[in-house]
Amino acid sequence: MPGLKEYRKNLNLTQEELSIKSGISLRTIQRVESGIDPKGYTLKALAKALEIDELGLLTNKPTNDRLNLELINYINLSTLIVVFLPIICFSVPLIITFTKKQFNKITKQIISIQMIWSLIMITIYLIGNIINLGALGRDVFIGFLYVLILLNIILVVRNSIELMRNKRLYIKLKSSII
């Protein structure tokens, strides 16, 4: 099956290494890579060794169900680089997600959170510039924007810690925008 071979090569594993990691014989791995569909224990063991969904092995092309947590964490932390520029704040993770082909539930959540944060920041900024706040009001308004930026930094760092510990986001939306 071409999917298994691609998954194996993406992990830089030889057939022998996959055999050891999965507990499946080398000959069985060769058969699966040649086109025989894995079943039962073989399917479960190979999926577990490759850290993918069993369904991914039954399709002829690999899916991006395998989570590269280091890359996802990098995508999350990339928002910190441009935290003062709301539009770029979600653009950078979006570009990394597409170029590295890590478009999954977690990266969708990260990008959705940053899109919402960007919309809030832009809206508040525009409202603050339309309304005449006076000198004191403008200082309070700018302070409020800095608090929102600080909250975004805390959100990104907290999600990063949770990704490394528990392989999920600590702060997430009920549904993603994208």
From TrEMBL:
Cross-referenced Pfam families: HTH_3
Keyword Lyase: no
Domain HTH cro/C1-type: 4-57
Molecular-function annotations in GO: DNA binding
Swiss-Prot/TrEMBL keywords: Membrane, Transmembrane, Transmembrane helix
Keyword Hydrolase: no
Entries under CDD domains matching the protein: HTH_XRE
Chain segments annotated as transmembrane: 74-98, 110-128, 140-161
Protein name, UniProt field: XRE family transcriptional regulator
Lineage: Bacteria, Pseudomonadati, Bacteroidota, Flavobacteriia, Flavobacteriales
